[in-house]
Predict the structure of Trigger factor.
Amino acid sequence: MQVSVETIGTLGRRLKVAVPADQVEKEFNVRLQRLSKQVKLPGFRPGKVPLKMVEAQYGGRLMDEVAGELIQTTLYEAIGSQGLRPAGDPRIQRKPAVRGEQLEYTVEFEIFPEVKRFDLAGSRIERPVVTVSEEDVNRTLETIRKQRATWKPVEREARQGDRLSIDFIGRLNGKEFDGGKANGFQLTLGSGTLIEDMEQGLLGAKTGDMRQIPARFPADYRHSVLAGQTADFEVKINEIAEPVLPELNEGFARDLGVADGSLDKLRSDIRNNLEREAAGRARAVVRARTLKLLLDANPIEVPQSLLDAEAQRLKNSDVAGGLGAKDEAAYSVRARSRVALGLILGEFIRNRGLTPDPARVRAKIEEMAADYESPQEFIQWHYEKPERLSEIEGLVMEEKVVEDLLVSADISDKPVSFQELLKIETVVQ
C-alpha cells in the first residue's frame, strides 16, 4: 500500500492511498467464488454457473463492494502509518475500481492540534477565602421570609415589592403578537419577570387603572422578532397586594425543619449551609481560573469540524431551553473556547496517563446523591449505563487535572465577602 500526505492549512491533511492491484484482484476473486456458489441462472444447477457469466452479470457490483471493503480495512492503517490522529470523520473520495488496476482513493480530515504546555509554572492563582458573617445569615433569613410571604390586598399606589394581578395586551406596529397577551397575570414589581419598561410603567398605578405603556425589548431578547423593538401594552390592574412576612419565631423555625423550634439552631443550620456553598463556589472559582490559564497557555487552532458541531449543539440546546437563537458569531465564540479546552484537557490526560479512579468516582456520585430524596436510586441510575457513569468519570478526571496543575502554580489566598464570591465568574470564557 502506498500512502502520501499533503498538508492543508494548519490542521488539514489529505492522504492519497493506493492499494496494490494484486490485493484488489485477490479480494475480487474471493467474492466472485463465494457468489458463484449462491447465484442461480436459468439452465445451470446452483453452484455450477461459469465464473465468466457470474462476473459478466455481477462484476460491477462486486468491484464496488471490494473497493468499499478495502477502503474500510486500509483507511486507518494508512492514517496510522503517518502518525496522524483525525479529529472528526474523514471525507473519502475514490476513483472507479477497475479489474487489474490498483485501487486509489483520497481521504481528507483535520488532525488534533499540538498541545505544548502541561503545567502552570510561573502562573499565579488567587483562591477566594470567605468567612460567613452574621449579615450573610440575616440576609438569607430575610430571603427565606420573603419566599414564604403571604399577600394582603391594599388600596394604594403600587410600589416595588408589591404583587399585581394584571390583564395586558401587547401590540407591535399596531398588531398583536404571540405571547403578548395574558389575563390574571401575577407580577411582583422589581422581580424582573417582565421587561424593565413594563414594570417601571406600573409603579404608582392603582387597582382598576388602565395604563398604556410603551416598552422596548432588549436587543438580546430571546425571541428575535421582538428583540430591540418597542411594543405598546394596554394594561389593566386588577389587584395590588403587599407582602406580609412571617415572624421569626419557633413556628417559623419548625416549618424549616428545626424540631425544637430553636432560632439559634436555625441560624446555625443556615450558617453551615452558607459555608458549604462558599467552599463549593470557591473551588469552582479556582477551577475556572486554573483552566483559563491552561487555555491561555495553549493558543491552539480548533478543527473546524469540531467547532461547527459544538456551535450547533449549543444552538440546539438554547433553542430547546426556550432561550431563542443568538447571533451565529456568539455561538462560534463559545464553541471555540469549549472545544479548545476539551482538546487541551484530553491531551493533558493522555500525556499524564491519567485514568478515572473507581473509588473516587463512587465518592463523587455519593456526594451528588446526598442532595436527592432517594440517594440509592440516584447512585444505581448512574451505574446502570456506561454513558451515565462516563459523565461522572469526566468530572473526576477534570478535578484530577486541576489538582495536578495547581501543584505547579503559585497560589495565594484572598479574603472576600460571601456576596463578592457570588459575583466571581465560575465559567471558563
